[in-house]
Amino acid sequence: MEYYPILITIHIIFAGGWLINFLIEPVIKKNINLRKGTPSEKILVNLYLKFSNLLGIIGATGILITGITMVILNPGFGFFQMTANHWLSTKQILMVILLLIIFLFIIPTAKRLRSDISAGLEDKEPLTEESYKYLKKIYRLNTAVNIIVLLNFLFAITRRFMA
Fold first, then answer.
1. What contacts 134, CB < 8 A, 6 or more positions away?
2. Average pLDDT over residues 64-87
3. 92, 80 Cβ separation under 8 angstroms
4. Who has the most CB within 10 Å: 57, 79, 88, 124?
5. CA 152 from chain center: how many Å?
6. Are 142 and 21 in contact (CB under 8 A)?
């Protein structure tokens, strides 16, 4: 238990890294929309996919590993025990939902979009209608993920106020 405070700090750092996406994503989306139909649009979409993928991998993996470790090490915590720590159980349920969204929807859609744009990344051609459809779906899914991450963060910082 002597390393527990360090584990909490690392957990918070991973959460902060994941929350950065919440702040930066609107800026990247705005730039993509401003350059719609230009050659730089594909480059920005590719950057958006890499950025959200990288932060998602780091954030999700770090949160999962540190979160599971904290639950195992802390005798007051448990997995999905609503009667003991409803805030923690809610966070755990939301994390499962996040992982389902990521693995079932975001990753396959991002792969399709990436293959559509990477084939013609050097072309001067604008994105296809199908690529725009995938991009809009990624936008919606990433917004849902960001909202759930923010909710999880709020549950963590307000848990002392909930009895």
1. 109, 110, 112, 113, 116
2. 84
3. yes
4. 88
5. 12
6. yes
C-alpha 67/C-alpha 12 separation (Å) is 10
Instruction: Report residue 47 as tokens.
Output: 């950057």
Q: What are phi and psi of 76, to 5 degrees?
A: -85, -10
pLDDT of residue 66: 94
pLDDT class of 100 with cuts at 50, 70, 90: very high
The closest alpha carbon to 53, from 100, 109, 129, 12, belongs to 109
Residue recorded with tokens 């755990």: 92
pTM as predicted: 0.83
- What is the distance between the alpha carbons of residues 147 and 19, in angstroms, rounded to a whole number? 10
Residue-level pLDDT at 1: 65
Residue 103: count of CB within 10 angstroms of its CB: 11
Number of domains in the chain: 1
Length of the chain: 163
In 3-state terms, what secondary structure has residue 162? coil
18: Cβ–Cβ under 8 A, 6 or more apart, which residues? 55, 56, 58, 59, 60, 63, 149
Average of per-residue pLDDT across 82-107 = 88
